[in-house]
Design a protein that fits this description.
The protein is an alpha+beta fold and about 425 residues long. It has 14 helices and 5 strands. Helices cover about 40% and strands about 5% of the residues.
């Protein structure tokens, strides 16, 4: 029943040590192509993949002979240690204590140091966690720090309203409010809290104040008399339009001799002046050397266009505001030329520039000398007492003042009609 020591081609109950092509009840130790009743000793396909996947994380990366887990331990961020992290620290310390070498003495400090290195936590934090666990025998959840209230939350709405009024008080006095001025005013008020510059800046932004470029159009702070004039103008212009009158508008502006547009078309294919010369092209539009002389332009027109032969252009003599180059005598001379182009019933709209509003006769004000006010009253046949002071004389002037306030432009227009 036992096989011979030599090779055989017959069937056998046990395999020979060497390779064979015969059928057998048990698999051979080596590779074989014969069928078998039991699977090979190796892992199945699913288990093999899992093991390979686990082994890969401990194998060096492709092109490198280093394992990534040999790098130094990553330090933990400085934040509150959670209960889960505390549990890990305690378990690591227990493991280090249990597995310490018997032939080598390790103090508690050495064990804590080793735990610190393994967990990536500072030694002081490990001590704190272990001491707490030793005292109360349980792992606690750390207390969360309460959020500090901001300066905006500390100040109530009443104080915020007071700070807003302080800012607007500078506007009402004609001053420009700065953070330094506002801070001084707020800190001087005993009913308001003392604020630093940073806190005040945050409150200003919270109150919707914005540090930006000044806007000359102060529509929101119109005076009452300006609002009244505007309403009167709108009513009159509406009436003139209902009467189908021709309405003309006149104004002044300025332009520099070197004035040009800010944008233009540029050929990006031209890279140099040499290339433009070879191809017979240009390098683009040339910028003016300077702004040049300033010209003042005055005209009059309406929706149908400008009025013929009424353009007035002259060179400015002053470099400041272009209004400084205008004066009443020259404007009135040009306005007389415009009136020759007008028809009966036409309306001309002007703004309130000083050279548009020269009065035919000056009327007294409190800045006048007392003798001048008395002379004006005599010229109007208004009686007064020589013992009157200036205030009493002005009380006689004010009731009749409007009667004698006429403008040169208005009188010129009346004569035309």
């Amino acid at each position: 029943m036992e096989p011979e020591a030599g090779p055989s081609t017959g069937e056998s109950m046990q395999p020979e040590p060497g390779p064979s092509t015969s059928k057998s009840m048990e698999p051979e130790a080596g590779p074989s192509t014969s069928e078998s009743m039991e699977p090979e000793a190796g892992p199945s396909t699913g288990e093999s993949k899992k093991r390979r996947r686990r082994r890969n994380i401990f194998q060096p990366q492709q092109g490198s002979d280093k394992i990534p887990f040999t790098s130094p331990t990553t330090k933990r961020r400085k934040t509150v240690i959670s209960s889960g992290e505390r549990s890990i620290i305690i378990n690591v310390f227990k493991y280090v204590t249990k597995t310490k070498p018997e032939d080598k003495y390790m103090s508690n400090h050495d064990l804590v140091k080793l735990t610190s290195e393994m967990c990536g936590v500072h030694e002081r934090s490990v001590y704190n966690v272990l001491n707490e666990y030793r005292d109360i025998h349980k792992i606690t959840e750390p207390e969360r720090k309460r959020d500090r209230p901001s300066v905006i939350q500390k100040i109530d709405n009443l104080d915020k309203s007071a700070i807003r009024r302080i800012v607007h008080s500078f506007f009402l006095k004609g001053e420009l409010p700065t953070l330094k001025k506002i801070q001084q005013a707020v800190n001087d008020d005993e009913s308001l809290p003392t604020l630093s510059m940073t806190s005040l800046r945050r409150i200003m932004k919270h109150l919707k104040f914005k540090y930006t470029k000044r806007n000359r159009k102060s529509v929101l702070i119109d005076r009452g008399d300006i609002v009244s004039w505007r309403i009167k103008y709108l009513k009159q212009i509406k009436q003139f339009r209902e009467e189908n009158r021709r309405i003309f508008y006149t104004d002044e502006t300025w332009v520099n001799a070197g004035h040009t547009v800010g944008k233009t078309w540029v050929d990006e294919n031209i890279k140099s002046a040499k290339q433009a010369f070879k191809e017979g092209l240009s390098i683009g539009a040339k910028n003016p050397v300077s702004k040049g002389k300033r010209l003042i332009v005055v005209h009059v027109g309406n929706e149908e266009g400008f009025l013929d032969d009424c353009k007035w252009v002259f060179e400015a003599k002053k470099t400041g505001d272009y209004h400084e180059n205008m004066d009443a005598p020259h404007f009135e001379k040009w306005f007389g030329k415009v009136l020759t182009k007008m028809q009966p019933g036409d309306v001309i709209v002007l703004d309130n520039a000083s050279y548009h509003s020269r009065r035919e006769e000056r009327t007294p004000t409190m800045q006048w000398r007392k003798g001048d006010i008395q002379g004006w009253l005599r010229s109007k046949n208004i009686l007064y007492d020589d013992k009157y002071v200036k205030k009493e004389l002005m009380d006689l002037v004010n009731p009749v003042k409007e009667k004698y306030q006429s403008y040169v432009i208005d009188e010129m227009a009346k004569k035309k009609t």
